Amino acid sequence: MAFLSFCICRQTCLAPRFLVRAYPIRNTPRRQEFLQQLRFSIPSDVTRPSEPEGERGLPASRAILPRAGIFFDLFRQGLFFSVYVRYTCTAFGDGSRLRMDTQGKLEYLADASRFDLACACSAKTDDHRIRGPEGKWLYPVSLPQGGKSILLKTLLSNVCVNRCLYCPFRDSRDVPRYSLSPEEIVAVFLDYVRRKGIHGLFLSSGVIRDADYTMGRLLAVADLLRNRYRYRGYIHLKIIPGASDAAVQQALSLASAVSLNVEAPHRKAFEQMSQTKSFERDIVERIRRISDWTAPGAPYAGVHQTTQFIVGAADETDSEIVRATFGLYRRLRLSRVYFSAYQRGLGDPALPGERRVLSDPGDLLTREHRLYQVDWLLRRYGFSDDEIPFQADGNLSLQADPKTLWAERNPQFFPLDVNKAPKRDLLRVPGLGPIAVRKLLTLRAEGGRIRSRREMRCIAPRLLWADRYLKFPLRIG
Questions:
Q1: Rounded Cα–Cα distance for residues 351 and 358 (Å)
Q2: Does some domain include residue 421?
Q3: Which of 68, 237, 372, 392 is most deeply buried (CB count within 10 A of its CB)?
Q4: 373/401 Cα distance (integer angstroms)
Q5: 140, 129 in Cβ contact below 8 A?
Q6: Full-prediction pTM beyond 0.85?
Q7: Which of 353, 387, 421 lies at the terminal end of a domain, its last residue?
Q8: Are residues 218 and 295 in the same domain?
Q9: Portion of the chain with pLDDT greater than 70, in percent
Q10: Cα Rg for the chain, rounded, in angstroms?
Q11: CA angle, 184 as apex, 182 and 187 as ends, to 5°?
Q12: Cα angle: 47, vertex 159, 285; to 5 degrees
């Protein structure tokens, strides 16, 4: 059966428009008969024949009918009618029903996007993500001209036909599935832009049918924003593994940044996590092509490319991740590499990350933090991958940060003359970062000198054990 609700919307120069909302419960002959009475057919991506697996990629116990809007016009006796059919019903195995509107689906999908970190993020407490008043996850970003703004981050759909063993939305997992139409995302995003002044949109998705179909829906959002609504702000689009060259190039023509998650540092670790994708063909080769298309002088120069590693799901070591990261920066010119600690309990029990015994549940998060510290050393401090101090097992120490360990292993490098050492050497001093070094170099360029630890602490408040690493003209505090 179907529940109908009617409302009349008065519009200028038109007869009253009747809005018919149909909430079908399941794909039954009676529903099909009802829809045929309305004299239109349902697109294949909205309803499918009943199958043992429910919808493609969905367990039978939680087959969900995605929302779709179908508009058509009937002219009867000179009156103009527009009929809108809306699917918002979720059919559960126990017979219960759940109606999910746009706001509810957005809250669920925005929360689901937290597993993908391949966008702006920060380690600072005041830069952590926040939940907006409507339940949407909002992420602080650094603006190119300086300052902070907010990024709306969501999935277009958590329906997925792939079986990535680490992913909480793999096709074999029994979870609710929701999808948003491109028009829904655009409407909510523009409303948020008007009311909240957010800076941009990060949009990802599960693989709904295949890579190009999913890319088409992501591209529809970007195309609406760019060409219909003339939005010129930040748009980050996820590149779906296996997408065609044409789809990727269209994404580059619309987006400010794109990301294709590499997930693992090599093929062996990748195949431990997923056997439905090819590491070389779908991931590595695609990242190489995007790098070529976004290189200086190339057609899409200026579009940023980022990626992400899953940390702890497979048998990879930190040294393998760091060497792969260094190669992505040096050879393929990626703008940023992100690291996401594997969420234990959400993956397939066969994963190494599920079987591994941890001495402390927080070890994976500490490991993720150490990799971010190494990432800064590679990007901002002039370190190379072969200078990073690893333990005998190939992993980073969980007890000490890598910069301090490097200093302890290279005592011959210190102490440095605070008034003469070059920038590259100063950046290797524990407690000195790019901002403090820039202040110091500016002071020296203006003829100033640092004479004591007390004066140095005015420039670098976090500098500890200064006498161990720096030489001062005066030996006073």
A1: 14
A2: yes
A3: 237
A4: 7
A5: yes
A6: no
A7: 387
A8: yes
A9: 70
A10: 27
A11: 110
A12: 120
